[in-house]
Design goal:
Blueprint (H helix, E strand, L loop, with lengths): L4 H25 L8 E6 L3 E6 L6 E3 L7 E5 L1 H8 L5 H6 L3 E5 L1 H18 L6
Parallel strand pairs: 1-4
Antiparallel strand pairs: 1-2, 2-3, 4-5
Helix pairs in contact: 1-2
Length: 126
């Protein structure tokens, strides 16, 4: 019978990464700029983070729901992308990210994040 300890050890860092991603998105999207669509990040081993850009203001939550665009990505990689440690285009070309649906939705997120990062001077660069 499995004790579940292995799952807890693995899920801990993944959940922490997902918590940080959710916090980054909530902070960034609080400054305005609507996606006008639903964007979902599916994190294998952790869960989902959803941006419901059909609402004003955008709503960020962890409830699974249908999306206009779904991004399948490891939560640790996704966090590194949001923290600007890894280039999203390089990760995509390497096959580490899979996008299903309307790709223009995820493309709309980048300018919002860049605009907010310039406002807070947190080191994001274009």
């Amino acid at each position: 019978m499995a004790s579940g300890k292995g799952e807890t050890l693995t899920a801990g860092p993944l959940k922490a990464a997902e918590d940080e991603i959710e916090a980054i998105l909530k902070s960034t999207l609080a400054g305005g700029g609507s996606l006008g669509a639903v964007l979902k990040f599916v994190h294998p081993g952790a869960g989902v983070v959803v941006i419901d850009g059909t609402k004003t203001p955008n709503e960020v939550h962890r409830r699974d729901m249908p999306a206009d665009c779904t991004v399948h990505v490891d939560p640790m990689l996704n966090l590194a992308i949001f923290q600007r440690h890894i280039d999203q285009n390089t990760a995509f070309r390497q096959g580490r990210i899979r996008i299903v649906g309307d790709v223009s939705v995820v493309a709309r997120l980048r300018p919002i994040m860049l605009r907010q990062s310039h406002a807070t001077e947190d080191g994001f660069r274009e």
